[in-house]
């Protein structure tokens, strides 16, 4: 779920100090059925094919589908973190284009990645309806969670020391059964429920897998 909605930022995700150090060049990920490579602006046309659909937008905030490719390009640009990682680096990102591992045309059928670093890292995803229910997003989330085992800065301040193990967060519409299942299958646990624009938003947390 996107994190730039002010209510989402303030109420859905708790604050967590940024300790992750994101490489300037993020590696691609291979899972059983998928090839996940860093998302590029040039992927906008493929992403627009599903971001422009109402049956996809129904599960997002806002529920307005993208009207043109420029809106999809703006969405891709927003995946660049606006807050620094723990090394102080700006302009990093950790979002991947989802491609079937057997598709010679390399068409982008979905996107998955870390929405932002503040107030805490959260994972987001979406896939073209032609590919719903094939286990792809469950598999993609597992790949990204595993790749999120990046170097971390040692805790320095009292607050960092007392904050406990680092977590990865997620949130989705409670009625989005597929998304709830994707998260639960990947070990995310429900931590909160809130109301947003007539929906019940469930937030989830996953302890960062140990490196
Ligand atoms: C929600 C979404 C990400 C699920 O992706 P997916 O690749 O279809 O999910 P998976 O195939 O990995 O399914 C995971 C589980 O959910 C179930 N599931 C998937 N879609 C479902 C649906 N619409 N209704 C009920 N169950 C569903 C699957 O059967 C599977 O269950 P199982 O493990 O018991 O067999 C995808 O439907 C999507 O992109 N929707 C539009 C955008 C969106 O909702 N993004 C997430 C916002 S938080």
UniProtKB/TrEMBL annotation:
What Pfam families does UniProt report for this protein, alphabetically? Acetyltransf_3
UniProt name for this protein: N-acetyltransferase domain-containing protein
Q: Which residues form the signal peptide?
A: none
Annotated ranges, domain N-acetyltransferase: 34-189
Question: Can you provide one Gene Ontology molecular function annotated for this UniProt record?
Answer: acyltransferase activity, transferring groups other than amino-acyl groups
